[in-house]
Amino acid sequence: MQTEFPEKYRILGLKIAYYRKKAGYTQEVFAEKINKSVNFLAQVEGTGTTRGVSLETLFKMASVLQIPASKLLEDDD
What we know:
Elements: H1 6-22, H2 27-33, H3 38-45, H4 55-65, H5 70-73
């Protein structure tokens, strides 16, 4: 995927992985809860890939993780 913002995708993936682990979910369990494949989640969380997520998926992830969706998108600068 071509993007002007590869660093933002990388950070988003890291945040998803962080909150997923904090919630105690493996990739397998979390992927099942958001109705996605483990491969999809691994691509999103992977630092070497640029895999986007729809807003629907982002909201579902936040809901399962019991955090505001904004937590996944906010800049930490």
